[in-house]
Protein backbone atom coordinates (compact mmCIF):
# COMPACT_ATOMS: atom_id res chain seq x y z
CA UNK A 1 0.00 0.00 0.00
CA UNK A 2 2.86 2.34 0.77
CA UNK A 3 4.24 1.84 -2.76
CA UNK A 4 0.84 2.51 -4.33
CA UNK A 5 0.39 5.71 -2.32
CA UNK A 6 3.92 6.86 -3.32
CA UNK A 7 3.25 6.14 -7.00
CA UNK A 8 -0.13 7.86 -6.89
CA UNK A 9 1.42 10.86 -5.18
CA UNK A 10 4.15 11.05 -7.81
CA UNK A 11 1.65 10.84 -10.68
CA UNK A 12 -0.51 13.53 -9.07
CA UNK A 13 2.52 15.77 -8.66
CA UNK A 14 3.50 15.30 -12.31
CA UNK A 15 -0.10 15.95 -13.43
CA UNK A 16 -0.30 19.19 -11.38
CA UNK A 17 3.08 20.28 -12.83
CA UNK A 18 1.91 19.61 -16.38
CA UNK A 19 -1.47 21.33 -15.93
CA UNK A 20 0.27 24.39 -14.53
CA UNK A 21 1.84 24.95 -17.96
CA UNK A 22 -0.24 27.46 -19.99
CA UNK A 23 -2.22 25.69 -22.73
CA UNK A 24 -1.50 22.21 -21.37
CA UNK A 25 -5.20 21.45 -20.89
CA UNK A 26 -5.66 21.68 -24.68
CA UNK A 27 -2.94 19.11 -25.29
CA UNK A 28 -4.36 16.77 -22.66
CA UNK A 29 -7.83 17.09 -24.15
CA UNK A 30 -6.47 16.30 -27.67
CA UNK A 31 -4.64 13.21 -26.42
CA UNK A 32 -7.70 11.91 -24.60
CA UNK A 33 -9.92 12.39 -27.64
CA UNK A 34 -7.34 10.95 -30.07
CA UNK A 35 -6.59 7.72 -28.24
CA UNK A 36 -10.05 6.95 -26.92
CA UNK A 37 -11.31 3.64 -28.36
CA UNK A 38 -8.18 3.35 -30.62
CA UNK A 39 -5.68 0.93 -29.03
CA UNK A 40 -4.06 0.13 -32.40
CA UNK A 41 -2.93 3.72 -32.77
CA UNK A 42 -1.37 3.65 -29.29
CA UNK A 43 0.58 0.45 -30.10
CA UNK A 44 1.75 1.78 -33.50
CA UNK A 45 2.99 5.11 -32.14
CA UNK A 46 4.74 3.46 -29.18
CA UNK A 47 6.51 1.17 -31.65
CA UNK A 48 7.60 4.18 -33.75
CA UNK A 49 8.87 5.97 -30.64
CA UNK A 50 10.93 2.95 -29.56
CA UNK A 51 12.25 2.54 -33.13
CA UNK A 52 13.29 6.19 -33.30
CA UNK A 53 15.06 5.94 -29.93
CA UNK A 54 16.87 2.77 -30.99
CA UNK A 55 17.92 4.39 -34.32
CA UNK A 56 19.24 7.54 -32.61
CA UNK A 57 21.18 5.58 -29.97
CA UNK A 58 22.61 2.96 -32.34
CA UNK A 59 26.18 3.13 -33.60
CA UNK A 60 26.48 5.17 -36.77
CA UNK A 61 27.88 3.44 -39.87
CA UNK A 62 30.83 5.09 -41.55
CA UNK A 63 31.80 4.12 -45.12
CA UNK A 64 35.48 3.72 -44.29
CA UNK A 65 35.06 1.65 -41.12
CA UNK A 66 36.21 -1.50 -42.95
CA UNK A 67 38.92 0.22 -45.00
CA UNK A 68 42.33 -1.39 -44.95
CA UNK A 69 44.84 0.71 -43.05
CA UNK A 70 47.97 1.26 -45.12
CA UNK A 71 51.35 2.30 -43.89
CA UNK A 72 53.06 5.35 -45.33
CA UNK A 73 55.47 3.07 -47.19
CA UNK A 74 52.61 1.15 -48.82
CA UNK A 75 50.90 4.39 -49.82
CA UNK A 76 54.10 5.66 -51.44
CA UNK A 77 54.54 2.40 -53.36
CA UNK A 78 50.98 2.56 -54.71
CA UNK A 79 51.47 6.18 -55.79
CA UNK A 80 54.66 5.26 -57.66
CA UNK A 81 52.93 2.35 -59.43
CA UNK A 82 49.88 4.42 -60.52
CA UNK A 83 49.68 5.30 -64.19
CA UNK A 84 47.20 7.90 -65.49
CA UNK A 85 44.70 6.73 -68.11
CA UNK A 86 44.84 8.71 -71.38
CA UNK A 87 42.12 11.33 -71.80
CA UNK A 88 41.31 9.92 -75.23
CA UNK A 89 41.84 6.36 -76.49
CA UNK A 90 44.90 5.65 -78.56
CA UNK A 91 44.24 5.94 -82.28
CA UNK A 92 44.44 2.77 -84.31
CA UNK A 93 45.79 2.69 -87.85
CA UNK A 94 42.36 3.24 -89.42
CA UNK A 95 41.62 6.22 -87.15
CA UNK A 96 44.94 7.76 -88.12
CA UNK A 97 44.13 7.14 -91.77
CA UNK A 98 40.77 8.94 -91.44
CA UNK A 99 42.39 11.84 -89.63
CA UNK A 100 45.19 12.23 -92.16
CA UNK A 101 42.85 12.13 -95.16
CA UNK A 102 40.40 14.74 -93.86
CA UNK A 103 40.64 17.82 -96.10
CA UNK A 104 40.98 21.27 -94.54
CA UNK A 105 39.15 24.12 -96.28
CA UNK A 106 40.99 27.42 -96.05
CA UNK A 107 38.70 30.45 -95.97
CA UNK A 108 35.02 30.58 -96.81
CA UNK A 109 33.16 27.53 -98.00
CA UNK A 110 32.10 27.85 -101.62
CA UNK A 111 31.28 25.89 -104.75
CA UNK A 112 34.99 26.24 -105.53
CA UNK A 113 36.83 25.91 -102.25
CA UNK A 114 40.42 26.53 -101.31
CA UNK A 115 41.79 23.38 -99.74
CA UNK A 116 44.98 23.13 -97.75
CA UNK A 117 47.73 21.50 -99.81
CA UNK A 118 46.33 22.50 -103.20
CA UNK A 119 47.33 25.62 -105.11
CA UNK A 120 44.08 26.00 -107.07
CA UNK A 121 40.50 25.94 -105.70
CA UNK A 122 38.74 22.59 -106.01
CA UNK A 123 35.21 22.12 -107.33
CA UNK A 124 33.33 21.33 -104.13
CA UNK A 125 30.97 18.34 -104.25
CA UNK A 126 31.51 17.40 -100.62
CA UNK A 127 28.89 19.61 -98.91
CA UNK A 128 25.11 20.07 -98.95
CA UNK A 129 25.39 23.48 -100.62
CA UNK A 130 22.87 22.24 -103.18
CA UNK A 131 21.47 25.60 -104.30
CA UNK A 132 24.69 27.54 -103.70
CA UNK A 133 22.96 29.67 -101.07
CA UNK A 134 26.26 29.85 -99.18
CA UNK A 135 27.35 32.48 -101.69
CA UNK A 136 24.05 34.40 -101.71
CA UNK A 137 24.78 38.10 -101.28
CA UNK A 138 21.29 38.89 -99.96
CA UNK A 139 21.62 36.25 -97.22
CA UNK A 140 25.05 37.56 -96.27
CA UNK A 141 23.82 41.16 -96.04
CA UNK A 142 20.81 40.26 -93.90
CA UNK A 143 22.91 38.06 -91.63
CA UNK A 144 25.40 40.87 -91.02
CA UNK A 145 22.63 43.40 -90.35
CA UNK A 146 20.97 40.98 -87.90
CA UNK A 147 24.27 40.33 -86.15
CA UNK A 148 24.70 44.06 -85.58
CA UNK A 149 21.15 44.43 -84.27
CA UNK A 150 20.74 41.29 -82.11
CA UNK A 151 24.28 40.19 -81.33
CA UNK A 152 25.63 36.67 -81.56
CA UNK A 153 22.98 34.80 -79.56
CA UNK A 154 20.55 34.91 -76.66
CA UNK A 155 22.40 32.25 -74.61
CA UNK A 156 19.04 31.16 -73.25
CA UNK A 157 16.56 28.34 -73.92
CA UNK A 158 13.68 29.11 -76.30
CA UNK A 159 11.04 28.55 -73.65
CA UNK A 160 12.56 31.09 -71.25
CA UNK A 161 14.08 34.20 -72.83
CA UNK A 162 15.73 32.75 -75.95
CA UNK A 163 12.85 33.24 -78.41
CA UNK A 164 12.72 36.55 -80.27
CA UNK A 165 10.74 37.88 -83.20
CA UNK A 166 13.00 36.46 -85.95
CA UNK A 167 12.57 32.94 -84.53
CA UNK A 168 8.78 33.25 -84.66
CA UNK A 169 9.02 34.68 -88.17
CA UNK A 170 11.05 31.64 -89.29
CA UNK A 171 8.57 29.24 -87.71
CA UNK A 172 5.76 30.90 -89.68
CA UNK A 173 7.84 30.84 -92.87
CA UNK A 174 8.51 27.10 -92.54
CA UNK A 175 4.86 26.27 -91.78
CA UNK A 176 3.69 28.35 -94.72
CA UNK A 177 6.31 26.84 -97.06
CA UNK A 178 5.37 23.27 -96.13
CA UNK A 179 1.63 23.83 -95.84
CA UNK A 180 1.29 22.85 -92.17
CA UNK A 181 -0.43 24.70 -89.32
CA UNK A 182 2.66 25.48 -87.25
CA UNK A 183 6.37 24.72 -86.85
CA UNK A 184 8.88 24.73 -84.00
CA UNK A 185 12.63 25.41 -84.19
CA UNK A 186 15.49 23.40 -82.71
CA UNK A 187 19.03 24.67 -82.32
CA UNK A 188 20.80 21.53 -83.60
CA UNK A 189 19.90 19.57 -86.69
CA UNK A 190 20.98 16.15 -85.40
CA UNK A 191 19.14 16.40 -82.09
CA UNK A 192 15.86 17.45 -83.71
CA UNK A 193 14.57 14.04 -84.79
CA UNK A 194 16.27 12.31 -81.84
CA UNK A 195 14.26 14.62 -79.56
CA UNK A 196 10.95 14.62 -81.44
CA UNK A 197 10.49 10.84 -81.42
CA UNK A 198 10.85 10.37 -77.62
CA UNK A 199 8.68 13.45 -77.03
CA UNK A 200 5.70 11.52 -78.41
CA UNK A 201 6.55 7.84 -78.12
CA UNK A 202 7.27 6.48 -74.63
CA UNK A 203 7.88 3.14 -72.99
CA UNK A 204 5.16 0.71 -74.04
CA UNK A 205 4.29 2.58 -77.24
CA UNK A 206 4.99 1.10 -80.67
CA UNK A 207 7.30 2.33 -83.44
CA UNK A 208 7.34 0.73 -86.89
CA UNK A 209 10.60 1.90 -88.44
CA UNK A 210 12.30 1.59 -91.83
CA UNK A 211 15.55 -0.33 -91.25
CA UNK A 212 17.43 2.07 -93.57
CA UNK A 213 16.91 5.24 -91.51
CA UNK A 214 19.86 7.46 -90.63
CA UNK A 215 21.79 7.50 -87.38
CA UNK A 216 19.88 10.41 -85.82
CA UNK A 217 16.56 8.60 -86.29
CA UNK A 218 18.06 5.44 -84.80
CA UNK A 219 19.11 7.40 -81.70
CA UNK A 220 15.63 8.87 -81.34
CA UNK A 221 14.08 5.41 -81.55
CA UNK A 222 16.55 4.10 -78.97
CA UNK A 223 16.00 6.98 -76.53
CA UNK A 224 12.21 6.57 -76.66
CA UNK A 225 12.48 3.05 -75.14
CA UNK A 226 9.39 2.12 -77.12
CA UNK A 227 8.63 -1.26 -78.61
CA UNK A 228 10.17 -1.29 -82.10
CA UNK A 229 9.34 -3.31 -85.20
CA UNK A 230 11.56 -2.87 -88.27
CA UNK A 231 10.50 -3.32 -91.88
CA UNK A 232 12.67 -3.78 -94.96
CA UNK A 233 14.14 -0.62 -96.38
CA UNK A 234 11.65 1.35 -98.48
CA UNK A 235 9.52 -1.77 -98.98
CA UNK A 236 5.83 -0.89 -98.58
CA UNK A 237 4.81 -4.51 -99.04
CA UNK A 238 6.92 -5.53 -96.05
CA UNK A 239 5.58 -2.54 -94.11
CA UNK A 240 2.04 -3.75 -94.71
CA UNK A 241 3.05 -7.26 -93.61
CA UNK A 242 4.49 -5.92 -90.34
CA UNK A 243 1.39 -3.81 -89.69
CA UNK A 244 -0.86 -6.83 -90.28
CA UNK A 245 1.23 -8.97 -87.92
CA UNK A 246 1.01 -6.29 -85.24
CA UNK A 247 -2.74 -6.00 -85.77
CA UNK A 248 -3.11 -9.72 -85.12
CA UNK A 249 -0.78 -9.75 -82.09
CA UNK A 250 -2.35 -6.71 -80.43
CA UNK A 251 -5.99 -7.82 -80.53
CA UNK A 252 -6.03 -8.70 -76.82
CA UNK A 253 -3.58 -6.05 -75.63
CA UNK A 254 -4.32 -2.51 -74.43
CA UNK A 255 -4.27 0.25 -77.04
CA UNK A 256 -1.03 2.27 -77.18
CA UNK A 257 0.32 5.13 -79.28
CA UNK A 258 1.65 3.84 -82.60
CA UNK A 259 3.89 5.51 -85.15
CA UNK A 260 5.40 4.74 -88.54
CA UNK A 261 8.86 6.32 -88.82
CA UNK A 262 10.66 6.83 -92.12
CA UNK A 263 12.75 9.31 -94.12
CA UNK A 264 11.69 11.40 -97.09
CA UNK A 265 15.03 11.09 -98.88
CA UNK A 266 17.20 8.40 -97.28
CA UNK A 267 20.62 9.73 -96.30
CA UNK A 268 22.28 6.30 -96.42
CA UNK A 269 20.70 5.09 -99.66
CA UNK A 270 19.73 8.09 -101.79
CA UNK A 271 16.25 6.81 -102.64
CA UNK A 272 12.87 8.46 -101.96
CA UNK A 273 10.08 7.03 -99.80
CA UNK A 274 6.85 5.93 -101.48
CA UNK A 275 4.87 8.47 -99.48
CA UNK A 276 1.38 7.99 -101.01
CA UNK A 277 1.44 4.28 -100.20
CA UNK A 278 2.80 4.87 -96.68
CA UNK A 279 0.05 7.44 -96.02
CA UNK A 280 -2.51 4.95 -97.30
CA UNK A 281 -1.24 2.27 -94.89
CA UNK A 282 -1.08 4.79 -92.06
CA UNK A 283 -4.79 5.56 -92.49
CA UNK A 284 -5.76 1.95 -92.99
CA UNK A 285 -4.12 0.66 -89.80
CA UNK A 286 -4.67 3.84 -87.71
CA UNK A 287 -1.07 4.93 -87.15
CA UNK A 288 0.58 8.33 -86.90
CA UNK A 289 3.35 9.10 -89.38
CA UNK A 290 6.74 10.70 -88.69
CA UNK A 291 8.82 11.66 -91.74
CA UNK A 292 12.39 12.94 -91.47
CA UNK A 293 12.95 15.41 -94.33
CA UNK A 294 16.48 16.39 -93.34
CA UNK A 295 17.83 15.60 -96.80
CA UNK A 296 14.76 16.42 -98.91
CA UNK A 297 13.65 19.78 -97.48
CA UNK A 298 14.47 22.60 -99.89
CA UNK A 299 15.50 20.40 -102.82
CA UNK A 300 12.77 17.84 -103.60
CA UNK A 301 9.47 18.71 -105.25
CA UNK A 302 8.33 21.37 -107.66
CA UNK A 303 8.67 24.09 -105.01
CA UNK A 304 11.41 22.35 -103.02
CA UNK A 305 9.02 21.67 -100.12
CA UNK A 306 10.04 18.02 -99.74
CA UNK A 307 8.39 14.69 -100.49
CA UNK A 308 4.86 15.95 -99.83
CA UNK A 309 5.44 18.49 -102.59
CA UNK A 310 7.11 15.86 -104.81
CA UNK A 311 4.10 13.51 -104.59
CA UNK A 312 1.54 16.33 -104.37
CA UNK A 313 0.36 15.00 -101.00
CA UNK A 314 -1.20 17.43 -98.52
CA UNK A 315 1.44 18.06 -95.84
CA UNK A 316 -1.28 17.70 -93.18
CA UNK A 317 -1.56 14.01 -94.12
CA UNK A 318 1.83 13.56 -92.41
CA UNK A 319 1.42 14.00 -88.65
CA UNK A 320 4.99 15.05 -87.91
CA UNK A 321 7.48 16.46 -90.44
CA UNK A 322 11.04 16.94 -89.24
CA UNK A 323 13.73 18.72 -91.23
CA UNK A 324 17.09 20.44 -91.11
CA UNK A 325 18.06 24.04 -91.79
CA UNK A 326 21.72 23.14 -92.19
CA UNK A 327 21.47 21.29 -95.52
CA UNK A 328 19.87 23.11 -98.47
CA UNK A 329 19.20 26.32 -96.51
CA UNK A 330 22.85 26.62 -95.43
CA UNK A 331 21.90 27.83 -91.94
CA UNK A 332 21.86 25.78 -88.75
CA UNK A 333 19.42 23.85 -86.58
CA UNK A 334 16.26 21.97 -87.39
CA UNK A 335 12.48 22.16 -87.22
CA UNK A 336 9.38 20.09 -86.63
CA UNK A 337 6.12 20.94 -88.38
CA UNK A 338 2.58 19.74 -87.79
CA UNK A 339 -0.69 20.83 -86.26
CA UNK A 340 -0.96 23.15 -83.26
CA UNK A 341 -1.13 20.32 -80.69
CA UNK A 342 1.96 18.61 -82.13
CA UNK A 343 4.00 21.81 -81.92
CA UNK A 344 2.74 23.01 -78.53
CA UNK A 345 3.47 19.62 -76.95
CA UNK A 346 7.15 19.93 -77.86
CA UNK A 347 7.56 23.31 -76.19
CA UNK A 348 7.43 21.47 -72.86
CA UNK A 349 8.33 17.90 -73.84
CA UNK A 350 11.01 18.30 -76.53
CA UNK A 351 14.23 17.85 -74.56
CA UNK A 352 16.45 19.43 -77.23
CA UNK A 353 14.07 22.40 -77.36
CA UNK A 354 13.76 22.90 -73.60
CA UNK A 355 17.40 22.38 -72.64
CA UNK A 356 19.31 24.04 -75.49
CA UNK A 357 20.01 27.69 -76.16
CA UNK A 358 18.01 29.06 -79.07
CA UNK A 359 19.73 29.43 -82.43
CA UNK A 360 21.51 32.74 -83.18
CA UNK A 361 19.20 35.35 -84.69
CA UNK A 362 21.38 35.79 -87.77
CA UNK A 363 20.97 32.09 -88.64
CA UNK A 364 17.20 32.32 -88.26
CA UNK A 365 17.13 35.31 -90.61
CA UNK A 366 19.43 33.48 -93.04
CA UNK A 367 17.05 30.50 -93.14
CA UNK A 368 14.05 32.76 -93.70
CA UNK A 369 15.84 34.51 -96.54
CA UNK A 370 16.81 31.15 -98.06
CA UNK A 371 13.16 30.03 -98.04
CA UNK A 372 12.23 33.32 -99.68
CA UNK A 373 14.86 32.81 -102.42
CA UNK A 374 13.64 29.27 -103.13
CA UNK A 375 10.06 30.54 -103.35
CA UNK A 376 11.03 33.34 -105.75
CA UNK A 377 13.37 31.22 -107.89
CA UNK A 378 11.80 27.76 -108.28
CA UNK A 379 13.95 27.24 -111.37
CA UNK A 380 16.87 26.55 -109.00
CA UNK A 381 15.21 23.23 -108.08
CA UNK A 382 14.90 22.16 -111.70
CA UNK A 383 18.50 23.18 -112.41
CA UNK A 384 19.64 21.02 -109.51
CA UNK A 385 17.58 18.06 -110.75
CA UNK A 386 19.03 18.42 -114.25
CA UNK A 387 22.60 18.52 -112.92
CA UNK A 388 22.02 15.43 -110.76
CA UNK A 389 20.53 13.47 -113.64
CA UNK A 390 23.37 14.48 -115.96
CA UNK A 391 25.95 13.42 -113.35
CA UNK A 392 24.25 10.04 -112.87
CA UNK A 393 24.05 9.48 -116.61
CA UNK A 394 27.80 9.97 -117.03
CA UNK A 395 28.58 7.61 -114.14
CA UNK A 396 26.23 5.00 -115.60
CA UNK A 397 28.72 4.44 -118.45
CA UNK A 398 29.43 0.83 -119.32
CA UNK A 399 33.12 1.21 -118.51
CA UNK A 400 32.26 1.53 -114.79
CA UNK A 401 29.87 -1.42 -114.63
CA UNK A 402 32.52 -3.92 -113.42
CA UNK A 403 33.67 -1.58 -110.66
CA UNK A 404 30.95 0.44 -108.92
CA UNK A 405 27.22 0.86 -108.40
CA UNK A 406 25.22 4.04 -107.73
CA UNK A 407 22.76 4.35 -104.82
CA UNK A 408 20.21 5.36 -105.83
CA UNK A 409 21.05 4.56 -109.42
CA UNK A 410 17.71 5.68 -110.83
CA UNK A 411 18.73 7.95 -113.71
CA UNK A 412 15.54 10.03 -113.34
CA UNK A 413 15.79 10.48 -109.59
CA UNK A 414 15.65 14.12 -108.43
CA UNK A 415 17.82 13.37 -105.40
CA UNK A 416 20.73 15.86 -105.25
CA UNK A 417 23.20 13.33 -103.88
CA UNK A 418 24.09 9.67 -104.34
CA UNK A 419 26.47 7.04 -103.04
CA UNK A 420 29.13 5.27 -105.09
CA UNK A 421 29.82 1.79 -103.68
CA UNK A 422 32.18 -0.89 -104.85
CA UNK A 423 30.42 -3.77 -106.56
CA UNK A 424 30.55 -6.97 -104.55
CA UNK A 425 31.38 -8.87 -107.74
CA UNK A 426 34.56 -6.77 -108.05
CA UNK A 427 35.52 -7.54 -104.45
CA UNK A 428 34.82 -11.24 -104.95
CA UNK A 429 37.06 -11.27 -108.00
CA UNK A 430 40.11 -10.43 -105.86
CA UNK A 431 42.34 -13.29 -104.80
CA UNK A 432 42.28 -12.41 -101.09
CA UNK A 433 39.51 -11.31 -98.76
CA UNK A 434 39.03 -7.54 -98.61
CA UNK A 435 38.17 -6.04 -95.24
CA UNK A 436 36.05 -2.96 -94.66
CA UNK A 437 39.20 -0.96 -94.03
CA UNK A 438 40.67 -2.08 -97.35
CA UNK A 439 37.46 -1.08 -99.10
CA UNK A 440 37.59 2.35 -97.42
CA UNK A 441 41.21 2.80 -98.55
CA UNK A 442 40.25 1.89 -102.10
CA UNK A 443 37.55 4.55 -102.14
CA UNK A 444 39.88 7.07 -100.52
CA UNK A 445 42.32 6.50 -103.36
CA UNK A 446 39.53 7.59 -105.74
CA UNK A 447 38.88 10.67 -103.56
CA UNK A 448 42.59 11.56 -103.63
CA UNK A 449 42.80 11.11 -107.38
CA UNK A 450 39.77 13.40 -107.87
CA UNK A 451 41.39 16.05 -105.65
CA UNK A 452 44.56 15.81 -107.73
CA UNK A 453 42.40 16.49 -110.80
CA UNK A 454 40.67 19.50 -109.17
CA UNK A 455 37.54 17.97 -107.59
CA UNK A 456 36.69 17.74 -103.88
CA UNK A 457 34.51 14.76 -102.90
CA UNK A 458 34.40 12.69 -99.72
CA UNK A 459 33.71 9.26 -98.34
CA UNK A 460 30.51 8.81 -96.33
CA UNK A 461 31.26 8.59 -92.60
CA UNK A 462 29.44 6.33 -90.15
CA UNK A 463 29.58 5.55 -86.44
CA UNK A 464 30.56 1.96 -87.12
CA UNK A 465 30.02 0.45 -83.67
CA UNK A 466 26.67 2.16 -83.04
CA UNK A 467 24.84 1.90 -86.37
CA UNK A 468 22.09 -0.69 -86.22
CA UNK A 469 23.06 -1.94 -89.68
CA UNK A 470 26.13 -0.05 -90.82
CA UNK A 471 25.97 0.73 -94.56
CA UNK A 472 28.78 -0.41 -96.79
CA UNK A 473 31.61 2.08 -97.45
CA UNK A 474 30.83 4.64 -100.12
CA UNK A 475 31.78 7.91 -101.76
CA UNK A 476 28.98 10.42 -101.27
CA UNK A 477 28.67 12.99 -104.05
CA UNK A 478 26.61 16.16 -103.49
CA UNK A 479 25.44 18.08 -106.56
CA UNK A 480 25.37 21.88 -106.54
CA UNK A 481 24.07 24.60 -108.83
CA UNK A 482 27.16 26.57 -107.86
CA UNK A 483 28.92 24.81 -110.73
CA UNK A 484 27.89 25.49 -114.30
CA UNK A 485 26.52 22.66 -116.45
CA UNK A 486 29.88 22.37 -118.17
CA UNK A 487 31.73 22.21 -114.84
CA UNK A 488 29.21 19.68 -113.53
CA UNK A 489 29.82 17.37 -116.50
CA UNK A 490 33.56 17.87 -116.11
CA UNK A 491 33.30 16.84 -112.45
CA UNK A 492 31.36 13.72 -113.41
CA UNK A 493 33.98 12.76 -115.98
CA UNK A 494 36.70 13.37 -113.38
CA UNK A 495 35.04 10.91 -111.01
CA UNK A 496 34.63 8.44 -113.85
CA UNK A 497 38.28 8.60 -114.89
CA UNK A 498 39.48 8.42 -111.26
CA UNK A 499 37.45 5.26 -110.62
CA UNK A 500 38.75 3.63 -113.79
CA UNK A 501 42.35 4.53 -113.01
CA UNK A 502 42.35 3.50 -109.35
CA UNK A 503 40.31 0.31 -109.75
CA UNK A 504 42.41 -0.86 -112.69
CA UNK A 505 45.60 -0.50 -110.62
CA UNK A 506 43.95 -2.16 -107.62
CA UNK A 507 43.00 -5.18 -109.71
CA UNK A 508 46.59 -5.60 -110.81
Task: Describe the structure in your own words.
By secondary structure, this protein is an alpha/beta fold. The chain folds into 2 domains: 94-124 and 379-507, Aspartate Aminotransferase, domain 1 (Alpha-Beta Complex), CATH 3.90.1150.10; 137-376, 3-Layer(aba) Sandwich (Aspartate Aminotransferase, domain 2). Helix content is 48%, strand content 12%. The chain is built from 20 helices and 14 strands. It has helices spanning 2-19, 24-35, 39-57, 72-81, 93-100, 137-150, 158-162, 165-178, 190-200, 215-224, 236-249, 275-285, 307-310, 340-349, 351-354, 361-376, 379-395, 424-428, 436-452, 485-507, and strands at residues 112-113, 122-124, 182-186, 206-210, 227-231, 258-263, 288-292, 320-324, 334-338, 404-407, 417-422, 455-456, 458-459, 475-478. A 7-stranded mixed beta sheet has the order 3-9-8-7-6-4-5, with helices on both faces. Helix 9 runs parallel beside helix 10 and helix 11 runs parallel beside helix 12 (275-285). The longest helix is centred in the C-terminal third of the chain and has 23 residues, at 485-507. The radius of gyration is 34 Å and the shape is elongated. The model has no long low-confidence stretch (mean pLDDT 90).
Q: What low-confidence regions span 5 or more consecutive residues with pLDDT below 50?
A: none
Q: Give the integer mean of the pLDDT values.
A: 90
Describe the main β-sheet briefly: 7 strands, mixed
The fraction of residues in strands falls at 5-15%
Which fold name corresponds to the CATH topology of the largest domain? Answer: Aspartate Aminotransferase, domain 2
Class by helix and strand content? alpha/beta
Q: Characterize the overall form.
A: elongated
Please give the alpha-carbon distance between the first and last residues. 120 Å
Spatial order of strands in the largest sheet: 3-9-8-7-6-4-5
CATH superfamily of the largest domain, by name, is: Type I PLP-dependent aspartate aminotransferase-like (Major domain)
CATH class of the largest domain: Alpha Beta
Helix content: 40-55%
Number of strands: 14
Number of helices: 20
CATH architecture of the largest domain: 3-Layer(aba) Sandwich
Number of domains: 2
As a whole number of angstroms, the C-alpha radius of gyration is 34 Å
